[in-house]
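Let's practice the habit of predicting before peeking. Look at the sequence and jot down your guess about where helices and strands might fall. Then scroll down.
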Amino acid sequence: MSRFFKGSDSESDSSSSDSEVNVPRPGASTARPVAYAFSDDEDEPKRIVRSAKDKRFDELREIIKKMGNHKKIKDMASVLTDFEELGKAYDKSKKVIEKENQIPRFFLRCLVELEDFVSECWEDREGRKQMSKNNAKGLTTLRQKLKKYNRDFESDIATYRENPDEGEEEEAVDSEEEKSEEEAREDFTKMKAAKEESRPSKKVTYDDDDDDDDDIDWEMSSDSSSSESDGGEGPGTTVYTAAMFLKKQPGEEKKEKKEKKEKRVKKKREEDEGGEWEEVTKGAPMIKEAPKMFAKDTEVNHEAVIKKLNEIISARGKKGTDRNEQIALLKELQSISNANNLGPAISMKIMFHIISAIYDYNPNIATCMRSEMWEKCLAGVSELLDMVEANPDINIGENILEESENVTTPPYRVRGCVLTIVERMDEEFTKMLQACDAHSTEYVDRLKDEKEVCVILDRLQTYLVPRGTTEEICRVYLRRIEHMYYKFDPEAYDNPKLENKSFKDMEEMCKFIYAKDLTDRLRTRSMLCQIYHQALHDRWYQARDLMLMSHLQDTIQHSDVPTQILYNRTMVQLGLCAFRKGNIRDAHNALVDIQSGGRAKELLAQGLLLQRQHERTPEQEKIEKRRLLPYHMHINLELLECVYLVSAMLIEVPYMAAHEMDARRRMISKNFHHVMRMSERQALTGPPESMREHVVAASKAMKTGNWKECKNYIINEKMNAKVWELFYKSETVQEMVTSKIQEESLRTYLFTYSSVYDSLSLETLAEMFEIDQGVVHSIISKMIINEELMASLDEPTHTVVMHRTEPTRLQSLALQLSEKVSSLVDNNERIMELKQGNLFFQKSGGMQDRQDRFQGNYQQNRNQNWQDRRNQRQNYSQRERAY
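Done guessing? Here is the structure:
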C-alpha cells in the first residue's frame, strides 16, 4: 500500500488472506487511513488498446522481419511468398496510410533492400546455377513481380535512395521507446510476482523482524516507482509538480526521447566493452586504415619496392588470397613508387602486374568479368599504353628474363608483352558481350566500349609497327581487321570508285599478312574477312574472284572451328551479295550448303540447337557457348532463308515445268521441295502468314504463269517489314526481284503451254508479262539455243512458231508406262535365268546347250532392239536439226 499512500515511519503495509484479520499494533496511531481492497484483476497488467495504425504497421513489420530471415538463408521461394503477403498487408493498410499522407519509411526501406538483394542474386551467375529448381524459379518470378510492383513507388524510392537516413532516427527512437516500455512492464510483472512469493502466508505478528520486511517492501516499491517519480524526500515518496501535468511540445518530447536513447546505448556499450566510446559524426563511414607498405624509417628505393612487389605477387593464385586487396596493394605500391621518383620502368613493371591481377580477379575463365572490373581493365590498359608511348626507349618484351631486367638505370629492360595484354582485353570484351542479354540496355552500354577498344588497338598498332616483329604486326593487324570486316559503310557503298579509308586500310593490312604471315591461320582468316567486307558492300566480282583464287573450299575442313564459322559467314554474305546483284544461280549455290541441313543457326555460331541423337555434356556446351558470336555481328536468319527459298523458286519452278513428265529429273533444292511437300499435305490451306507460306504461295502462282500474283506474295507490307527493308536501298532489291519473277514466269508459261499453241506473238507475251519486247526476244532465243524450247522465231511477223515435236501429255504418259513395263520384264527375265541355272541346267549337257542357245538368241534380239531404238533417236535428232 506504500505505493498509494504516504504515511509515517510507524505505518506498515502487510497483506493477508481473506480469513486473516488486520489487528492494530500496540502503540500505533489510530489515525490510520482506510485500506481499500483491490480485486485480482487490478494486479494483472492492463489491457493495451492499439490504434488501427499501430495494428497495421505491426503486421507489416512482422512480415518484413520474417522476410529478412528468409533472405539470410536465400530461400527465394519463401521470400516470394513473404513479398506477396507484404503486398496484401499493404493494401489493407492503405486507408491508414492515406490518413497519414506518407508511406512508412520502413516499408520503403524494405522495398529498396529487397530490390538490391534480388539484383545481387541475379548478377551472381554461379550462385544461380547452384540454386535448387524451386529457388531459381522463385527468384525469376520475384524479380519480375518486384520490378512491376516498384513502378508505383518510383518517386518515393528515388527520394529514399537520395536520403536513406532521413526519418530513420524517429522510427528508431519510437521503436526503442516501445521496447523500453514493454521491458518495464515485464520487469514490473516479474518483481510483483517475486514480491508475492516472498510474502509470508501466515498471520502478521508484531515482532521486531517485521521492520526488516517493511524495509524490503519499501525498497521494492521505491525501485518499481523510481521511473515514475521525479524526486522525493525518502524512498517511495513522490512529489508531484505542475510541470508533470503540462503538455510537452513535440520537439521537446522528441529531444527528450533521443537523449534517453543515447544514454541507454552509451551505457550498454560501456557495459559490453568495458570502456567509453568515441562519438562519431552521424553519416560518416567507418574508414578502415589501409595496411602500411613500408615502416616509417624504411628507405623507399628500387630494392625495397621490388622486394615488396615480389611479396605481393607471391600470393597470386593461392587459396584464400583476396584478389581485390591484391589489386589495391599493387596500386598503392605504384603510387609510392611514383611519389619517390623511382623511374618509369618500375612503374611500368608494377602496371603489368596490376593488369594481370585484374585478369585473375575472375577465377573461372569461362565466365566474363564484372562491369566494374572491366572498367578498371580498360583504364589500366590505356594507362599502360600512355606509359609505353611516353617512354619509347624502354625495351619491353616477353623474351626478357627476370634476371636480365633493369628498372633502376637506363637503358631500361622490362619483362612483359603489351600485345598479349591487349589481346586478352579483346577476348574479355567478347565474353562480356556474349554474357549480356542482347535485348537489354546493358548490352548497349557494353557495346559503347567498342569504340575505346578500337582506339586502343590503333594505338597499339602505331607503337608496334616501327619496333615489333613480323608476327606481332600480323597479330595486331588481324585484331583490327576482325573489328572492321562486318561493319557496313554507306559512303563506300554509294561511291565504289572513290578510295575509302576503311577499304584502303583493310587492303593494306591484308596484303601485309598475305606476304609476311608464316602461319596459315592468320592468312586464311584475313582473306575471309576481306571477302566478307567486299561482299557486304556489293563488290561481287572482287569478292568472287578472291574466293576462287584462295581455293579455301578444298582445305577449310582442316581448319579450326572458329575459322570454319568465319568461312560459313563469308559464304552466306557472298550469297546475299550475289542475290542483290541479280545472280540468282550463284546465290543459290553459295547458300545451299548452309540451308540444306537446317542447322544454319549453329553453323553461323548464332545459337545452339537441341540434338536428338545425343545430349551435350556440360563441358561441350560451355565450349560451344564460348564460340557464339555477339548479337551485333549476327546475320538475320529469316532474311537468309527467304533469299535462299526465293532463289530456289526462281530456278526450280521453270525446271519442274520443263521436265514435268521426266521420271528421272533431279531435285535442285531439297529444302525447297520439302517445304512444297509439307504445304501440299495440308488439308486446308489458308492465306499465308509466315515467310515460308508466302514463298510457297508465290511458287504455286508461278507454276501457272501468273506473275502478278506471285509478285504480290513475295513483295507486300508484311514481307517488306520482315525481309526486304533489312537491305540497304531495299527499293533496288525489290525491283530486281520483280524483274526476275517476270522473266521466270514467262519461261514457265512457255514450258507449260507450248504444246497448246501453234505460234505466239512476241508483242502479246510482252504485254502479258509487262516486259520489253526485246527482253522477251532474248529470253526465247536463249531457250531455243539451249534446246529447251522446240520453236523458231519469225522475224517479219514477230512471232514464235512451235514445231510441235514435243510429245503431248498422253504420249508422255504412254512412254513412261512403256519404259516401266520394259524394265519390269527385264528384271523378271533376269530372276528366271538365275533360278533355272541354279536348279537343273547344270546337270545335263543337252539342257545346258539348250540354255546357251536360248541366252544367245535373247541377247541377239535385245541388242537388235537397242540398235533400232538408237537409230530412231538419231533420225529424231536429225529432223530437229533440219527444223
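How did you do? The two ends are 142 Å apart (CA to CA).
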